[in-house]
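Lecture notes, continued. The same structure-token format from the folding unit now serves as the input rather than the output. Read the line below as a description of shape only.
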């Protein structure tokens, strides 16, 4: 499959593995995945030096770089780690991207160490691409990622990982606005009752947009940073409503077009990760949500005004909605609420990933204590995205157990998983220190 592993030399029968991915997406984050790889590489390198100097360890350590974590190719995430876990769907091998099936792409690549072509025989049989002996040797897996919602903390320790339900919804009329506004209100009500939930309509009517439009960069798992609203015969008293939307949703709205015939409202927000950003304007600058409420309020006050959201094709409104929660039952219940409210719309289920409701408590506490010892403000938090760690934690050992996982989160400055993603160097160092100290402690210990 092309996953890369590097282990410390010696006679170790047990390893602490750490790593992440290097692939990205169009308009992806600057640090997504790569800080986990670099942090793991540096940790393994430093422990290797200590081993060479004669320091004794109970376990070896290893680096892994996973292939195909992002869903930009073949519309599937975690391809490398799923293959390693023996969990890749056989149907995925036949899926095509740019004229090549995934199976053809894998078979065309060579192992850089042996020069031999990879093959998909094990994947066709639903088997892991790793040997059972190697899976049995992994005592724990540690991964580091970014997190933009650590507002008052230096480092986050993931206590759960949100699962996702992704839907594509098509409407034959302009009821898309009322539907999505009501959906937002449903989500806010559930959150007020203590439900862990984030919901994003990141894609709305972008199929007909010009190639140079910022709408081309909208995606299912990203908060929209741009939207366009067209209104025929807009009322001259729209100013106060525009000001209200700017204030409530923390966006900028610019007005163009011909006010005598059609006004165009250009809504400027900020992109961000749909699963990692709490709902509400304190955290989000959601251009789509601001546009939806602008039309919704306008219709109530001036019902004769006609409006259009972005660029619908053939009078059909299309949107994609990303719903996430760290609770399996609550995610399922909320999905049923969404489906019940669709009002005749056509709904296509794009994908589904299950939450990890509880991470290994011993590893959480180990990392938390290491972070506190280093003087960092630390919090237990849910991870908004899945990551390859989910696949690793599902690998089955010979004794029937699975591999415990630890996910450490570095504080991001407001936005993540987009070109504007920015992390202060010290924030990366903080999380990397916690990662290194945790791996070092695990490698020295005879037990997990």
């Amino acid at each position: 499959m092309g996953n890369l592993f590097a282990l410390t030399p010696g006679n170790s029968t047990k390893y602490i593995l750490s790593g992440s991915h290097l692939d990205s997406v169009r308009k992806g984050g600057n640090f997504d995945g790569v800080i986990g790889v670099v942090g793991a590489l540096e940790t393994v390198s430093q422990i290797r030096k200590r081993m060479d100097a004669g320091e004794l360890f109970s376990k070896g350590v290893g680096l892994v770089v996973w292939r195909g974590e992002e869903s930009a190719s073949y519309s599937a995430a975690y391809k490398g780690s799923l293959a390693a876990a023996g969990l890749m769907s056989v149907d995925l091998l036949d899926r095509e991207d740019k004229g090549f099936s995934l199976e053809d792409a894998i078979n065309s690549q060579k192992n850089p160490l042996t020069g031999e072509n990879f093959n998909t025989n094990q994947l066709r049989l639903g088997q892991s691409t790793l040997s059972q002996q190697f899976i049995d040797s992994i005592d724990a897996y540690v991964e580091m990622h970014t997190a933009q919602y650590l507002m008052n903390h230096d480092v986050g320790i993931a206590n759960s990982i949100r699962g996702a339900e992704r839907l594509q919804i098509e409407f034959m009329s302009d009821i898309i606005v009322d539907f999505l506004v009501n959906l937002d209100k449903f989500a806010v009500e559930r959150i007020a009752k203590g439900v862990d939930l984030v919901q994003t309509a990141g894609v709305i009517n972008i199929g007909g947009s010009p190639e140079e439009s910022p709408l081309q960069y909208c995606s299912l798992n990203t908060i929209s940073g741009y939207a366009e609203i067209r209104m025929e015969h807009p009322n001259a008293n729209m100013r106060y409503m525009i000001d209200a939307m700017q204030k409530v949703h923390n966006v900028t709205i610019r007005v163009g077009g011909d006010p005598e015939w059609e006004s165009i409202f250009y809504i400027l927000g900020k992109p961000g990760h749909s699963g990692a950003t709490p709902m509400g304007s304190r955290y989000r600058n959601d251009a789509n949500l601001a546009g939806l409420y602008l039309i919704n309020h306008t219709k109530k006050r001036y019902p004769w005004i006609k409006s259009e959201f972005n660029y619908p094709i053939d009078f059909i409104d299309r949107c994609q909605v990303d719903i996430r929660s760290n609770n399996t039952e609550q995610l399922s219940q909320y999905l049923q609420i969404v489906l019940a409210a669709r009002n005749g719309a056509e709904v296509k289920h794009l994908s589904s990933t299950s939450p990890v409701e509880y991470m290994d408590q011993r590893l959480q506490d180990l990392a938390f204590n290491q972070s506190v010892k280093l003087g960092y403000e630390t919090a237990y938090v849910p991870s908004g995205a899945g990551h390859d760690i989910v696949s690793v934690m599902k690998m089955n050992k010979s004794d029937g157990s699975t591999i415990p996982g630890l996910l450490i989160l570095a504080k991001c400055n407001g936005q993540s998983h987009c070109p504007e993603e920015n992390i202060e160097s010290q924030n990366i160092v903080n999380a990397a220190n916690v990662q290194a100290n945790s791996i070092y402690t695990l490698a020295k210990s005879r037990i997990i």
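Point for the exam: The mean pLDDT is 89.
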